[in-house]
Design a protein that fits this description.
alpha+beta; two-stranded antiparallel sheet; 15 helices; 12 strands
């Protein structure tokens, strides 16, 4: 940037900010219009980004190297009865999959129900009661904070033992050590042998509101008619795609699915939930951008209108400056900087309001809020760009005024 341009920029900025200060009410009203648009945009985006971040952390609790094989897909599209009529898995099929799927490092059948758990005078409803084998605790990245996990021997002899989640332990045993104590699951006694570390929520469902019992104990206690799914882990997360492809062939062979017919099972991965979730939040992003663009358009038109009024009011001033040798470039820079400054200030204030709104929403509701730095910078920068674009016509009109006619203007 040469010296003449630097002088024009500095002088234009000085005059622009002086003009904004001399017309405070007009400046404030124009700023508010832009600020509302930026605040609305950032508040919605902040909430959506917070939800995405929270959901990613929740999915991590399922493990990045796990596959879930079941009759039903996690996201059902199409005829539900088609999935409902699929054959159930059997325990011999689990052992055949274990023997034939070389990428699988651990495998466990999983069966569950919603039950009622009680101890003494305390009682919990809607508890996830899950039947698993000893390998399940390595597959799902479950960690114990006390006691032991379910063992192969527990499953073999159908022992009535249970490993409880953190929420169950805190609710039924406040101030007590739960190990060795007897709880009742839907009226049946089970001895607590272990306590799980806290995992948090997944899709607003508390993963710690759970009780795990041996798989065969579950069937002998609650009935054998309930279908189960199969969860497997892969040694290396980078082999998950290869493992899935191999598993499809193995499961088709084990279940006797004829060639040419579609799979009569579903292999589910945590990323599938993430993709579905992104599709849902993508609609919110569209709404946010639509509202923001409309509001910014209205604000930009307001800036153009105010700048045209400013040009008319300062016509004589422009004529004097042109008569004294001011270049058209200097006049253009002055008005463009004035328009951009109004928008940038509005964007900055809108950012503060938008982030504050998102934070308040996250504090008083279950919705999370998390705005990345590039979103903040983008909001302020976009606001300044709106002012710049909508200021071009008023700036060009001011620069192209005839100096003689401008000096005669009253």
């Amino acid at each position: 940037m040469n010296k003449a341009v630097r002088v024009d920029v500095v002088e234009g900025a000085r005059i622009a900010f002086f003009s904004l200060g001399a017309n405070r009410m007009r400046t404030v009203l124009t700023t508010v219009g832009i600020g509302i648009g930026v605040a609305t945009l950032l508040a919605i985006i902040g909430i959506v980004q917070g939800l995405n971040s929270s959901f990613e952390k929740q999915l991590a609790s399922l493990g990045t190297n796990t596959l879930h094989v079941s009759k039903f897909p996690w996201v059902i599209k199409g005829d539900w009865w088609m999935f409902r009529n699929r054959k159930n898995f059997t325990l011999p099929q689990v052992e055949q999959i274990r023997a034939q799927a070389s990428y699988v490092s651990a495998i466990s059948p999983v069966v569950g129900r919603i039950g009622e758990v009680s101890f003494g005078g305390q009682q919990l409803s809607t508890v996830d009661v899950t039947g698993v084998t000893h390998e399940y605790f390595t597959i799902g990245a479950w960690q114990l904070v006390a006691g032991r996990a379910i063992t192969e021997a527990d499953d073999a002899v159908t022992r009535p033992v249970a490993v409880i989640g953190a929420t169950v332990a805190e609710s039924l045993f406040p101030g007590l050590n739960p190990l060795g104590r007897s709880i009742r699951i839907d009226g049946r006694p089970f001895q607590v042998v272990g306590m799980l570390a806290r995992k948090g929520k997944l899709l607003e469902r508390d993963q710690d509101l759970t009780v795990m019992v041996p798989f065969k104990t579950f069937y002998s206690t609650f009935g054998k008619g309930r279908p189960f799914s199969i969860v497997v882990s892969v040694e290396r997360a980078e082999d998950i795609r290869k493992a899935e492809e191999q598993l499809i062939g193995v499961v088709r062979r084990v279940r006797g699915t004829p060639p040419g017919l579609p799979d009569d099972f579903s292999i589910n991965r945590p990323e599938q939930l993430a993709q579905t979730y992104e599709q849902l939040t993508g609609a919110l992003y569209g709404v946010a951008l639509g509202v923001g663009f409309i509001t910014m358009l209205v604000g930009g038109i307001g800036i153009m209108n105010i700048m045209l009024v400013s040009v008319r009011e300062r016509t004589r001033e422009i004529g004097i400056r042109r008569a004294l040798g001011a270049r058209k470039r200097t006049i253009v820079l002055q008005f463009l900087m004035e328009a951009s400054a109004v928008s940038a200030v509005g964007g900055l204030l809108g950012t503060v309001v938008g982030l504050g709104t998102a934070k308040v929403v996250s504090l008083i509701t279950p919705l999370a809020a998390d705005v990345q730095l590039f979103t903040i910078v983008g909001g302020v920068g976009f606001a300044a760009l709106v002012g710049l674009l909508f200021g071009i016509w008023p700036a060009a009109r001011a620069a192209n005024l005839d100096p003689v006619e401008a000096l005669r203007y009253e």
